[in-house]
Amino acid sequence: MSAVPSVRLLLLSGGAHPALAENLSRELKVPLVTAEVGAFADGETHVRVARDVRDAAVFIVQPTCPPVNDHLMVLALLADAVRAAGAARVTGIVPYLGYARQEQRGGPGDPRSAQVVGRLLGVVGLDHLVTVDLHAPALENAFPMPVTVLHAEEVLMPRVRSWGLHNLVVVSPDAGGLKRAQRYAPALDASVAAIAKDRPRPDLAVPLHVLGDVRDRACLLVDDMASTGRTLAGAADALRRAGAREVHALFTHAVMAPGAEDRLSAARLGKVLTTDTIPVPAAPWLEVVSIAPLLARAVRYLCGEGTATDPR
Ligand code: R5P
Q1: Which domains does the chain have, with CATH numbers?
Q2: Distance of alpha carbon 202 from alpha carbon 205, whole angstroms
Q3: Which of 29, 44, 130, 169 has the CA that lies 20 to 30 A from 293?
C-alpha cells in the first residue's frame, strides 16, 4: 500500500452506518460530512455532497451491508459525485463488502459477482478500497484499484484475552477459514481445529466432521461473518457432540439475515463477539468492539502521516 502526500482530508458518510462514521470522525479528529441521500418517486437513488471537495482526499464511509444494492449504489454515486467535483483522491472505506462471497461461479450461467462489484467501483472513480477481513483474500487481486484488507483480530484479540479461556482450541467452521484460525491461535496459546462443512444449497450449512481433538477443551469458533447463523450454530453442535467442554464464537461481520439472531442466541454459545463493520442489533448475549481505531490508522497511513504505520 502506498502513502499519498498530505492533502485536505474529507470524511464523507454515505449513511449506511452513521455510528461507525461518527466514531471514525472522533478517532481522526476530523469533522464528518454526511451526504444527502434520497430517492426519486420511481425508486431511483439520488445523492448530493453539499461541500467543496476540490483537491481533497475524500474517504467515503459506506459498508455495503443489507440492503446491499442500495448501499452499493449510494457508494457508486458518491464516488462519481466527488470525482466530478474535483476531489484529488477517492477512497472507499467499506469495512464490510457485500457480494464478496460470490467470487467464484457456483456453476454454468452464474456471474462472478464480487469481481463485477470491483469493476463497478473502479469505473466510478474509486482510487483505493479499504475493507476488513475480505471473505476470499485472493479477491483483492481481482479489483482494478489497490485494496487494503485490514484484519479485525487486532481489535478482537484483547477482548478474547480478557475472557481468560484455558486449554483453548481455535476452530474454523469450514476449510476456507483455516488460515484465519491459524492467525488467531498462536497469540491465544491455542491449538487449531476445523470442521468439514457441506453447502447442499445456498444459505444452508451442514457441518460434517470435526477435524482435530476438542474433547474436554474450550473451543473458540472464528469466522468472517454470521449471515443466517447456520454455520456457527451447526458448528457449535458438532463441537459439543465431539466432546468440547464449552464453545464460544467470534465473527467479524454481523450480517444477521432474518432468523440469525434467534439461531445464534439458541446455540448454547458461551461468549459471542463481533465488530461494528455493520450496524449490529443490541443483544445481551452479543459483545461488540469497534473497528474504528483500525480504520483510523489506515486513513492516517493513506494520508501520509509520518507516525502512522502500515495497518496491514
Ligand atoms: C463461508 O464461507 C463464510 O466464511 C461463513 O461461514 C458463512 O458465510 C456464514 O454464513 P451463514 O451464517 O449463513 O451460515
Answers
A1: 9-151+292-302 (3.40.50.2020), 153-289 (3.40.50.2020)
A2: 8
A3: 169
The response to whether residue 177 sits with its C-beta less than 6 Å from ligand 1 reads: yes
- Is there an atom of ligand 1 within 6 Å of 173 CB? yes
- The residues that bridge with 169 in the sheet, in sequence order, are 191, 219
Residue 81: closest CA among 131, 147, 125: 125
Alpha helices in 85-218 (DSSP H): 113-123, 153-162, 178-184
Instruction: Give the Cα separation of 38 and 225 in Å (integer).
Output: 29
Q: What is the pLDDT of residues 154-196, one digit of tens each?
A: 999 999 999 999 999 999 999 889 999 999 999 999 999 999 9
Output the CA–CA distances (angstroms, integers) from residue 264 to 174, 237, 248, in the order listed: 17, 11, 11
The predicted-structure confidence for 7-43, as pLDDT tens digits, reads as follows: 899 999 999 999 999 999 999 999 999 999 999 999 9
Number of Cβ within 10 Å of residue 88's Cβ equals 17
Q: Which residue has the cell 443466517?
A: 228
Grid cell listed for 312: 496491514
pTM for the full predicted model: 0.93
Substitution site in 139, 180, 204, 231 for ligand 1 pocket (most atoms within 8 Å of beta carbon)? 231
Compute the distance from residue 225 Cα to the ligand 1 centre, in Å: 6
Nearest CA to ligand 1 atom 14: 231
Ligand 1 centroid from CA 292, angstroms: 24
